[in-house]
Amino acid sequence: MESLTQTIQAVPLNHYILLSAIIFSIGVMGVLLRRNAIVIFMSVELMLNSVNLLLTAFSVYRGDASGQVFVFFIMALAAAEVAVGLAIIVMIYRNTNSIDINVLNRLKW
Amino acid sequence: MSTFYFIAFLSIFFSILVISAKNPVHSILYLILTFFTFTIHYILMNAQFLAIVNFIVYMGAILVLFLYTLMLINLNKESEPVKPFMVKIAAVFGGGILAVALVSSLKSLGVSDPVVLKNPELGLVKNLGKVLFNEFLLPFEVSSVLLLSAMVGAVLLATKDPKEPKATI
User: Fold this and answer.
1) Chain B partners of A86 at a C-beta cutoff of 8 Å?
2) Which of A29, B43, B44, B56 has its CA 20 to 30 A from that of B118?
């Protein structure tokens, strides 16, 4: 374990923020690009994960364990969100025979 | 140090593949690889508890749930129509603008200190358990209520109502 933790000694905090920002933006692009509801959901997961990574990096940087506990809560929240969201997608598929989100444009007004 | 940059490159590469793969099953498989690189990031920061939880909850439970749903709804080839080209350009442009805004605001901070693990026992189960059950006991219990209600909601939403006539949309 000692040799593993030696490897991060020289990584600046900015590079962690940069990595998380890039992956968050990729998630936003995925939500805007795709029309498949499941792929949109996966992009949301990607965004949640990038925030998790950043919280852990900050927690290690400050030497405070609260950040990692927060990540644990976010993971529990993501599990609940995925269960409910996928149930909604299954219900939409049963009613419309499609998971294309453009079928749902009548929900707008 | 170079390990971090290699793994970071892999996470960005696989996450681009997630949103660009045509087949949703391939998207899910690339998402599994992305989460695996995140697990390696956690191990590099010596956050062992989070690495294990990420491995079990995300790669084990959530991705299997995704695959299971995909199997249930049985997508055929022509079920995903592509968006118009201009909309795609606009989407990539919007995401790129967000990335540029975040990065340029980061640039104004200047050079930051390196991430140094001050306390090597920070991410271990022993230490995190003490914090979780002292300061965060109430949120921990509330999250159990959240998970229960999510389970009940998911079952309620996904089961068919036998009395209801078949929807004709």
Assistant:
1) 65-66, 69, 154
2) B56
